[in-house]
Structure formats: structure tokens, C-alpha cells
Amino acid sequence: MSKLQIANRKSRIANWLIVGILLLTWGLRLCCLEAIPPGWRDDELIEVYALSGEVLAGRPTFYFTGASGHEPLYHTLRAGALALWGVNALTNHLLPIVSGTLAVPLTYRLSRRLFGRKVALSAAILMAVGFWPLMYSRFGVRHQMLVPLALAVFYFLWPAERSSPAKARARMVASGVALAAALYTYTASRLIPAVLLVFGLYLALCHRERFRRWWRPLLATSLLAAVLTAPMWLAIARGRSEAAAQGVGADARLAELAVPLRELQTGNLRPLLENVWTTLGMFHAAGDPEWLYNVADRPVFNLLGGALLWAGVAICLFRWRQPRCFFLLLWLGFGLAPTFISVPPASLSHSILAQPVVYILPVLSLVEACKYASGKYASGKYASGKSLIRPGRRPAFAHSLFAICYFIFAIFLFSNAIRDLYDYFVVWPRQELVRVLYRADYREASRYLDAHPEIADVAMSSTLLGPWDRLALDVDTRRDDVDVRLFDPGRVLVWSAGDAPATVLLASWPPADSTTDDFLESPEAISPDLTRYTLPPISDLQSLVATPTRFANGLELVEARWVDELELLTVWRVAEPLDLPPSPIVANPPPPGVYSGPRLKVFAHLLAADGAQVTGDDGLWVDPLTLRPGDYFLQVHRFTLPPDAPAGPYGVRLGLYDPKPGEEMRWHVLDGAGEALADHVLVPAGE
Fold first, then answer.
1. Based on the domain organization, do 293 and 422 belong to the same domain?
2. Nearest-angstrom CA–CA distance, 25 and 21
3. Is residue 80 situated within a structural domain?
């Protein structure tokens, strides 16, 4: 068989292998989307409804100042998917799935151009099955979309110097468009121009002939990207000026996370050094500490993989005069830079730009070891073509060393693949904190309600009492005929309208308070995260019913009585549809000048015998937008005395108010004729 036939055969095998890897990649990213992640994260819902929702509402922008600042491309593209197929698990994850899948062949193409087919295939396999790419390819946020765009910039720009003029121009345009798209996607993309600039300076100093062929494509790419992204930079500058007084808005996230840099400005170098050290250990010692994106503190690789990665770094340092090796070092360094200067250290999110090179480096070291063992390694300069061990004179130990190298290669790929797949699909989604953070209980509640059409009114415990809990239930519940009231069981219990026993679903967090727990009956475990309870009919609790006090917004205070000297129990009834100010869905943190807080609270002021206010416990621990006429809710107010508090007994001044700054108002109490009386109720001291 001729060398050409052998080469063609190897090429066909490699093509089939990459097709198989792509099918595996696609399958792993589509598998079990409604179970892993186990539910919806706040970040996903905020981006779907408050950012992509702005586009759907006909308000596209070049930069979102909400949620501490977001580039627009990802949210605009997702708005198109939402318009076509609505909000569901697939449309939410579609762009990350596509991005994570595209990253694999692009990693293959770039690393093949740099280091050959063996490195490329192995790096593609690791990208297909790695925990890190899997996590972000199946999480409905923008981070993973940056990876294929960065790979496209590097791939199209790298070979431009060896292309024909027509192909070079096409590659320059492609790399410029890809760079602009990356800059429109995620903040870490702003380091891509830094990689290109430093690499250009390196070529100018160490490889002048190559630099003379390379600087024009680099300049053209940069100029095209600058022109295309100019509207975004103008929008960011405008947003910064609007947010200056509030500390929120355009690019606020950079200031929120850059704690080590703020410490450095005060002369404290230690946080920065600790961040750098911890981040460098994320590949072999302790990784991302957040359960949101990792099995907490789990390193990217096992010990073997970590050692091989640093061996790859050592090889590139040793051969720094070779452009491709120096380029990998730049890519890794700038990719990790955001994690060096922000919190938490070792963040998989902030270092997303470094993701592909992290999977290239360990296989590079193994492939080079195997080349050395086989006697094919080039002597002198890396690309000279001369063997370190002269051709035809392979020493006896080379066969054993060759076998050992490939054995280690197989162990590395297999052990990390099994470890990553098991940790992502089995270990991570079962963790209790992960299930709380991703609202697994809400997804289970939705499935339970879908399976029990006889339940039309239900109350569900809530951690946030805001739009994100409501939306998480609304998206996953396929029924339109069920009304869910949301409340904090540590302070409130809700009786849905009607005389029948009320149904309550309690999640594992937050726990019910002892005062409200006394009313919970007939527990039925739906899952480890969710329990169904029954409340006795409100008509059975006659001791709680007194002459109601009607407020102007439709709420009635049925009773207020003391549980002990510093704990007041109040019972409220929704007498008519509540008159509430509008509460639009707003990103968190909100854009400058936009209020996103509650529009209804109960004020409870503890009063001394002389009428002076001692302390207070303001709050409404039920979502008023979920309440329906006829509902009752029981609420507990607890007071903590300041050290200088006068002796009791104490009374309470109780009422309803809108807490929006600049528009604070109290709802008045109405008499029997509907006329306004005072703006509060006085509760006398208990006996």
C-alpha cells in the first residue's frame, strides 16, 4: 500500500471518527433536558423574560443595562426561537446546545491545523464528553456561545498568511464577523483582541517574516470588528453615565466581581495572589466552588489529566519560539485572566474563553510523548522533520515506551470521560443544594399538578415570592385551569378560596415555621423535594374569625392576636380583586432608574405604652399577584427589641403600604359605607 493510499485511509477513518464524535456530542446535549438540569434557574428566567422578552416586545437594543449589563446577540437570537416555539426546556437550551456542538468540530479543525489529527481527535472527544462543556451546553445562558465564536476567530485568522488572496480576504471577513459576534455575546470576549494583539507583537519581535504576512489580516479583522460593534460601545458608554450614581447598569458586573482588584488598589496584594493560585489549581486540585455550575470544588481533570495539562504547558513554554505553542500559552493566560481578578476564584463561567485550550493541552503532551517513543519526533526545531532518535535506529526500549504512552493515553481519555459523564448526569443533579437552586421542587410540582386535574386551587411554598417562581411554575405546568398561590411557609399559610380543605405543596426549602406547622395535616410525600399537605377548612377555624377591617385595596384584616409578647398572628381575607400598582417583569439587578421591588407590604410597628415606635416587622410573605378573591392567609410578625427598648406591654400599629421609593403610600381603612378612615389599625397589647 502506497503512502498516498495510507494517508487517504487514515483521512477516511478520521472523518468517520469525527462524525461519530459529533453524533455523540449532539446526543449528550439533547439527552434528558427536562431532568438535567433539574429545573429553572433565576438567571435563565431573567434572560428569557426580561432580556429576550424585551426583544419580543419590540424593544431590541445594542446593550441591555439590566442584569448588571448584557451584550445583546444571544438574547436576540433566542427571542427568535421563543417566538417560533414558545418558552420550554428545549427553546431555552437550544442556543447553548448548538454552540456546544459547534465547538467540537471547530476545536478539531483548529487543533488539527496547529498540531495534527491525533491531537485534534482527542481534544474533540474531551470537548464532547467533558463536564465543563456539558454543563454550559445544557444551561440556558450565553457563556457557551462564546466558545465556537472564539474558535472561529482563531481558525479563520490563523491560516490567512498561507491562503490565496481571494481566500485570505474571505477568511479576514469571516474572522472579523466572528470577532464582532463574540464581542456581542459575552464580556470575556473582550480579551480575544488582547490575545491577537499580543500575538502580533510576538510575531513582530520573533518572526518578522511571518509578521509581514500576518499583520494585514490581523488589522483587517480588528477594524471590521470595531466597525460592527461600534453601536454597542456607544450604548455601553451611555449606560455607564446613566448608572454612575446608582452602581448598576452597563458593565456593573465587572465592578461587582473584581474584589481582588479593589483590594489591590488599597495596597492589599494577597487576595489577587490567592485568586491566581486557586485558579491555577482548578485543573487538578480544587475547581469551581459553586454548586450552580459544578460539583463544588471538583477539579476539571483527575490527577492524571491535571498532570498532563501542566506537562502540555511546560512543552509550550519550552518551545515558546514556535508560534503555535506561544499562541496556546496566550490563549490559556488571557482565558483565565477574568478568574484571576474576580470572585469566586476558579470560576468555570469567567474562564469560559479558555475552555478549548484546556482540553487541547493534555492531549498535546501525550501525543508528543507517543511521537518521541515511536522515534518520529523532530529534532532541533519542532517542524524541521528530523527525528530525535535517528530513523532506522529505534532503540530497544522504544517499543515498551511507545506501548506505555498509548496505554496512558487510553487511561486518560477513558477515565476522564467516565468521571465527567457520571458526575454530570448522576452526581450533580442529585445534590440537595443543586435541586434547591434549580427549583427541582417546582418542576416536580408542575408534573404533579398535570397528573391531578382534580386540583384546581393550590398554595405552594416559595423562596423568592417574585416573578421568577411564578414563571418557573407557569412554564412547566401544561394546564391552564390551575391557580397557584405562592407564600413563604416560615411566615405565612394560605387557604385557597372555597370551603373545602385547602391543598398546600411544601418544598424542602424554606421550612415551615412552628406556628404555621400546627395547621398542616395529612402529609403525602410526592418526592424528596416536595410534600403535599391539607389545611382544615377555614370555616373550622372560627376562633380566628372576627369583625373584618376592610382596606381600600381589597384586603380585609380578619383578626390580629398575640401568640406571645413579641409575636403577632394576623389573618387576612381577599375580599375582592386586589387593586395593585402594575409590576412589570424587570431584570435583576434592574436597569438604572427602574424599580423592581414589591408594591404591597404590611407595616407592623411595635408601640410602647406612650405610643412611641419601638421597632417594626414590615413585610408581606405571600405573593399578592397570585391571590384570588375568597382566599385567606395567616401571617406571623415577629419583633426583636433593641437594647434600649422600654418595658412592655406593647401594642402594634398595623396597615398596608406601597414601598416604591418616591411613591410611598398607605391604603386607608374603609367604613361600612366605603368611606376612608385612618390609614392603620391599632392592635392593643396582649394580656
1. yes
2. 6
3. yes
